[in-house]
Amino acid sequence: MFPLTLDHRCPWLPLRGTASSWRRVLGGAMGRSAWASLCLMGTLHEATAQRDRKVPMQEDEEWRDVKLRWDPDDYGGIRVIRVPSDSLWTPDIVLFDNADGRFEGASTKTVVRYDGTVTWTPPANYKSSCTIDVTFFPFDLQNCSMKFGSWTYDGSQVDIILEDQEVDKRDFFDNGEWEIVSATGSKGNRTDSCCWYPYVTYSFVIKRLPLFYTLFLIIPCIGLSFLTVLVFYLPSNEGEKICLCTSVLVSLTVFLLVIEEIIPSSSKVIPLIGEYLVFTMIFVTLSIMVTVFAINIHHRSPSTHTAMAPWVRKIFLHKLPKLLCMRSHVDRYFTQKEETERSIGPKSSRNTLEAALDSIRYITRHVMKENDVREVVEDWKFIAQVLDRLFLWTFLLVSVVGSLGLFVPVIYKWANITIPVQIGNAIK
User: Fold this and answer.
1) How much is the average pLDDT of 196-206?
2) Class of residue 332 by CB neighbours under 10 A (exposed 0-12, middle 13-18, buried 19+)
3) Which residues does the UniProt record annotate as the domain Neurotransmitter-gated ion-channel transmembrane (predicted)?
4) Reported pTM
5) Domains in the chain: ranges and CATH
């Protein structure tokens, strides 16, 4: 039994002894069990770009050392003492998958009871690596684990007993970006040719709170995509349509660069918001091409292009306007009818009249030609309007269906996340 000495002059310091004496007595105390539990403290910090997770927590470790027993009656009824942890043997429980190279926690005092029970609750800031799945960013769910075990002792020397499978979260508060869905522990054993090594794995299922990214990334991107649709509502002869499309494309590129800085780089998966941005950029690029084509159609004339094909006239001047609820376009055609010669009067009068008729015919043909040219130009302009209306409805439909198809299933899945069920030693 370890010799304890009371100092009545200093009741707050009932223990006299040196660190070497503690270690000497405890040198042969092997084959003990350590009870372990985990308590989260503070808030969760995650450096997403580096895939590191920093978790402030408190390890509750308890073991029984038979050589630290005493009779309280022999020492003035003292039942509990507090001893610096560096003066006692403590189990070298460390975080295996740490990311900063620091394996130990803070050096705090241990609580030693008269029956040899030692309780040690060292606080620590653990920085652990975790593979981040950004497929559904910012509506993603991450499952990260932290593996604790003895660094030097095998199971025959120090066994780890998981006291509570649920992590204590009473002192934990959310950081505004992540929410812990579940935090559970499970015990496992790693064996080799001679020994077995117990370890405890704590699995943390965390859910990202997407409000910030929804307000400042997703909603602006959706607004830009619908702004692209409005390009086709502008008059066909407006050159500012291309300027608007180009401005939207530049804005989307800036958003894409911002997202690239936020999420970790990975070629395995494409994040949801990245897919939507690429989809919108393709969308805007197609709108620029279509706008250029519509402006080209608007400025066509008989002097620059060949005559309009009959099928073009039939589809774009008669069929599509009705389907698109546009006012029907009326074609005006002039039929040239040659006046038949009539026997009028004498030959001299007929010659004078023929000359006058030739002049009238010339003027008539000139006026009719100008009317035909004007009608053809108006037909091309109307076709440009039909194309704008057609692409307006097409792009609006694609934008709505694409946005809903990408986000609604993911949001529904994110909103209906269930806490994983503990089955044996595995988390499912």
Assistant:
1) 88
2) exposed
3) 217-330, 340-407
4) 0.63
5) 19-209 (2.70.170.10), 213-327+367-415 (no CATH)
